[in-house]
Amino acid sequence: MADGIKFRIDGVEIEGRRGQTILEAAEGAGVYIPRLCWMKGLSPAGACRLCTVKVNGRPMSACTQPIAPGAVVDNDTEELRGWRRDLIDMIFVEGNHFCMFCEKSGNCELQGLAYRFGITAPKYPYLFPQRELDASHPDILIDRDRCILCGRCVRASRELDGKDVFGFVGRGRDKRVAVNAEAGLGDTSALAEDRAVKACPTGALLVKRVGYAVPIGKRTYDHRPIGSDIEQPAASEEG
Ligand code: SF4
Ligand code: FES
Asked: What is the domain class of 130-208 according to CATH?
């Protein structure tokens, strides 16, 4: 590889290309690094911190950190699995995520991560936030109770759809996803086919009338954990 950069993940040497991030190079070598705000084809945001790895002993987000020759990266360690499990636990109680009643159930990356990390019940008390639902669009709705503020819809709308329908307003606990029309989503140029809608990793942005389409037992993560499509040669169990 002309521009090859060799480094190690969990003791295994892998080779990536100059300009790749740790997450991208790892993925190319069949190593799954958990992620939520990262999505192939979008600029990285470094927002969720789920992809945190240790690089030469220092915590860094794998989706934004470029690879460097000779770097020693820890990914699948007990400590990092614990951090990630805690983050997922916090995301669950910070919003209202009741998987069994959610139209996205079975096709949700947050739920897939909970399965993978063996999370079956909340570890922290629920915060029960009250957030505005926007069902003004004939074909799409926003349930902000399930929004994890990953920003994938924001970036996908801008970078892939060329629309800029979504953005963030507010700060801290009041931060929420907003749309570029006073009257709500129904007054925007958003369409159900937009990449922004498909980019949502949870049930926050939903296409109407297609919920619960796949029966339990046949859903995406019912038999193979999230990330197993990346891992080689076979899916490993975490959690
Ligand atoms: S609506 Fe979905 S894609 Fe957009 S920020 Fe919230 S969770 Fe992420
Ligand atoms: S996937 Fe890297 S910070 Fe979210």
From this structure: alpha beta
E-strand ranges in the chain read 4-9, 12-17, 52-55, 58-61, 72-74, 133-134, 140-143, 166-169, 176-179, 205-207
Give, for all 239 residues of the chain, the pLDDT tens digit.
557 999 999 999 999 999 999 999 999 999 999 999 999 999 999 999 999 999 999 999 999 999 999 999 999 999 999 999 999 999 999 998 988 889 898 899 999 999 999 998 888 999 988 899 999 999 999 999 999 999 999 999 999 999 999 999 999 888 999 999 999 999 999 999 999 999 999 999 999 998 888 888 888 898 899 999 999 764 444 44
Cα 69 to ligand 2 centre (Å): 22
Ligand nearest to the CA of 113: 2
Protein residue with least CA distance to atom 1, ligand 2: 35
Q: Which atom of ligand 1 is nearest the CA belonging to 202?
A: 7
How do the domains of the chain map onto residue ranges? 4-76, 130-208
Q: What kind of architecture, by CATH, is found in domain 4-76? A: Roll (3.10)
